[in-house]
Amino acid sequence: DGGITQSPKYLFRKEGQNVTLSCEQNLNHDAMYWYRQDPGQGLRLIYYSQIVNDFQKGDIAEGYSVSREKKESFPLTVTSAQKNPTAFYLCASKLAGGYNEQFFGPGTRLTVL
Amino acid sequence: GQQVMQIPQYQHVQEGEDFTTYCNSSTTLSNIQWYKQRPGGHPVFLIQLVKSGEVKKQKRLTFQFGEAKKNSSLHITATQTTDVGTYFCAGGLSNTGKLIFGQGTTLQVKP
């Protein structure tokens, strides 16, 4: 089955620790995205990548880092510099070109204690 | 920066009533997409509008894109309990590969 996967579904970390969220897709999509979802605020773009080995900051990139070494994978690291990391994180991918729909993974709910 | 405002934030309706959510952008959009997120789930693509003044229908759902390509609406006729969820509009900006999401409208339907 083709799709986009995120793991784990739930993640708990202590304050001050970095944590990496996984995102993998086998849809052969060129572009991949990370969003953060908080109640009442919709989806806010953290980072996106349109091709391998290249990525751009979104609207709320501070405290986050990404890599895009493979087309299928776009991991997101939430660093200790992120002031309010507890949130629901969604990864998405799509074919190249501006008018294609985004396919979302199931999300990872991160709680920092 | 560019923003897409979506209203209302919440809407409670009786089953069978109609429902509408509206999006307004501060800038002209190249296209607009609509997504639905069921409770506990992830956003799923519903439809895309590209042309000025475009109207598209999917069964009981009607989507419109404004003439100036700055606003859009989703109208559901005769809501059903299966319509429950959060509806997001997402505006596309030319040549950026990005979407700007509205805050979403959460629809509750009372049977």
Jot down its keywords.
heterodimer, A: 113 residues, mainly beta, seven-stranded mixed beta sheet, four-stranded antiparallel beta sheet, 0% helix, globular, B: 111 residues, six-stranded mixed beta sheet
The SS-based structural class of chain A is: mainly beta
How far apart the termini of chain B lie comes to 41 Å
Q: Give the CA-based shape of chain A.
A: globular
Uncertain regions spanning at least 5 consecutive residues of chain A:
none
* Count of extended strands of chain A: 11
Rg estimate of chain B, integer Å: 13 Å
Total count of strands of chain B: 11
Question: Mind describing the biggest β-sheet of chain B?
Answer: 6 strands, mixed
User: DSSP helix count of chain B?
Assistant: 0
Strand content of chain A: over 45%
Largest interface: A-B, 23 and 28 residues
Q: Kindly state the mean pLDDT of chain A as a whole number?
A: 93
Strand percentage of chain B lies at over 45%
Kindly describe this structure.
The complex is a heterodimer of chains A (113) and B (111). Helices cover 0% and strands 50% of the residues of chain A. Chain A has strands spanning 4-7, 10-13, 19-25, 31-37, 43-51, 54-57, 64-66, 76-78, 87-94, 103-104, 108-112. In chain A, the strands form 2 sheets. In chain A, strands 2, 4, 5, 6, 9, 10 and 11 form a 7-stranded mixed beta sheet that branches. Helices cover 0% and strands 55% of the residues of chain B. Chain B has no helices and 11 strands.
